[in-house]
Write the structure tokens for this entry.
Amino acid sequence: MKKELLYSGKAKDIFSTDDENLIVSVYKDQATMLNGARKETIEGKGSLANQISSLIFEKLNTAGVETHFVKRLSEREQLNKKVEVVPLEVVLRNVAAGSFVKRFGIEEGQSLSRPIIEFYYKNDDLDDPFINEDHIDLLQIATSEEVDYIKAETYRINDLLRAWFAQIGLNLIDFKLEFGKDKDGKLILADEFSPDNCRLWDADGNHLDKDVFRRDLGSLTDVYEIVLKKLEELH
Ligand code: UDP
């Protein structure tokens, strides 16, 4: 199925297939932070992130969200529609954490009165800077109609995900999404959804996400395993 390596990212390798509209994503056993400045091999992480992301994307597809997810192929591999990635990291926050806390001096854990969306320009050389809708328009990253669509989809995805995670006792604090254009130019959800790019807290405020790695709180794979088990119950 896999033909040639198209791209090697921090968390995944992307391969072409015999079908020009499909790619294979291979999840790596690697955790990075600070734009790759800290990097560690964590055995089992790739498989867990792939399984979690596959379950969530399947549920999103079933709920009518257009995504790049086709199917999970193996422990580490999934089949995806090929997209032209929109170079935006779309962050939605329900609760103050991470860079939001640092930037605005708000206490971590404070619920926001409504979900908010932030954009970052996906550009490693520039360290993914914070960017607003005027910048997105000016730099021709996306049209204002596309930005409106991305925002509406992100709010809808948040409503779905928040409800699913609440059913398994987890609070969805924040997350990052990426969108891309499929062969017909349609914007669809791409990349992954796993504890690598979201924050999940249990009822006692324990972190079940990549903050375990960022803040040295214990075994990353142990908490990813807990998230996967809980999601499988939901399935
Ligand atoms: N996030 C991500 N990739 C990034 C930056 C952030 O997936 O390059 C996710 C992160 O896991 C969190 C959310 O986006 O769920 C908000 O991250 P934040 O801006 O607070 O930055 P952080 O503190 O994670 O660096």
